[in-house]
Design goal:
By secondary structure, this protein is an alpha/beta fold. It folds into two domains: 4-97 and 252-283, Methylene-tetrahydromethanopterin dehydrogenase, N-terminal domain (Rossmann fold, 3-Layer(aba) Sandwich), CATH 3.40.50.10280; 98-249, NAD(P)-binding Rossmann-like Domain (Rossmann fold), CATH 3.40.50.720. The chain has ten helices and twelve strands. The strands form two sheets. A seven-stranded mixed β-sheet has the order 7-6-5-8-9-11-10. The protein has a five-stranded parallel β-sheet with strand order 2-1-3-4-12, sandwiched between helices. Helix 1 packs across helix 9, helix 2 (38-49) packs across helix 3 (69-82) and helix 5 crosses helix 6 (151-165). It is elongated.
């Protein structure tokens, strides 16, 4: 029986990237739907679960994507509510690659050792990658500080992380790169999760931190988020610190994404969100770096 993946994309055009990775991950056919809203989910899910008997439903799965993680989360909630009894299929949420990227960055930072009780700073954590990485690190026992450009954004971020991950973090406003050195004082692990082409952390802000053990940056477009590291860095030592650039992180992200697609077809009741994607990462061979 052929493996079928229903792609529910909240954007106007379904992601070609996600389609390619899905094929490489083991899907035989991909049924792509664009502009998906919560109101349109029920009929699409019914089409996926009522065409095969329960013993064959592991050959059908759902992938939720698009550029907006908040929209993807709403779609996931409706998908799960539509399932009943044995009539369900496995589903993965990875809007804009945020879950797999966040997990890959967390795994890379763990190359510096156990994160429990380590002071971690996640800059620009109001974005979906930063928020999810911060939540996963806090769940793992790290002492996490998140940054936002504005005080009100920082306060809301604390509330959002508590609601989504059940964790407590500290938040500070970091309006621009000139404040980075003060924010990083005493930092042991740093993740820069800002947007493309925005430098958040100058070299002198992190290179002079005596306790810093690892730095990761998910921005691949110059100027990079952290000055002094390269996009291809994958455990390179810079200024005595392990450095991971966006492409170094991205290699493991791609491996993880494909592995998650393959997992969807092993059973019909798997839900892959941030935490369960981190579990999948733990089953893979240790990443280089």
């Amino acid at each position: 029986m052929r493996t079928l993946l229903l792609q529910l994309d909240t954007s106007p055009n379904p992601s070609v990237f996600d389609r390619v990775v899905a094929y490489d991950g083991g899907a035989d056919e991909i049924m792509s739907c664009s502009g998906v809203t919560p109101d349109s989910v029920r009929d699409l899910v019914h089409g996926a679960i009522f065409t095969r008997g329960p013993k064959d439903l592991h050959n059908t799965a759902i992938f939720i994507g698009g550029t907006d993680m908040a929209a993807g989360e709403k779609v996931l909630a409706v998908v799960r509510d539509t399932f009943f009894g044995p009539m369900r299929v496995s589903v993965m949420l990875d809007s804009n690659g945020s879950n797999t990227t966040a997990v890959a960055a967390v795994v890379k930072l763990q190359k510096a050792g156990d994160v429990r009780n380590r002071r971690v700073v996640v800059t620009a954590a109001t974005g979906p990658v930063g928020m999810r990485a911060a939540g996963l690190l806090a769940q793992a026992g790290a002492d996490v500080t998140v940054t936002s450009r504005r005080v009100d954004g920082a306060a809301k971020l604390v509330e959002d992380l508590k609601a989504r991950f059940g964790c407590t973090v500290r938040a500070v406003a970091m309006a621009d790169a000139s404040q980075a050195a003060g924010v990083l004082e005493g930092c042991e692990l740093l993740l820069s999760a800002g947007g493309f082409g925005v430098r958040l952390v100058p070299r002198e802000a992190w290179a002079r931190q005596p306790e810093l053990r690892a730095v990761a940056d998910v921005n691949a477009v110059p100027p990079l988020g952290v000055e002094g590291i390269e996009a291809m860095d994958d455990g390179v030592e810079r200024e005595g610190v392990l450095a991971f650039g966006a492409l170094g992180i991205g290699g493991f992200k791609m491996k993880l994404h494909k592995a998650c697609i393959a997992k969807l077809f092993e059973r019909n009741d798997l839900v892959l969100d941030a935490e369960s994607i981190l579990d999948v990462a733990g089953t893979l061979s240790p990443p280089r770096g």
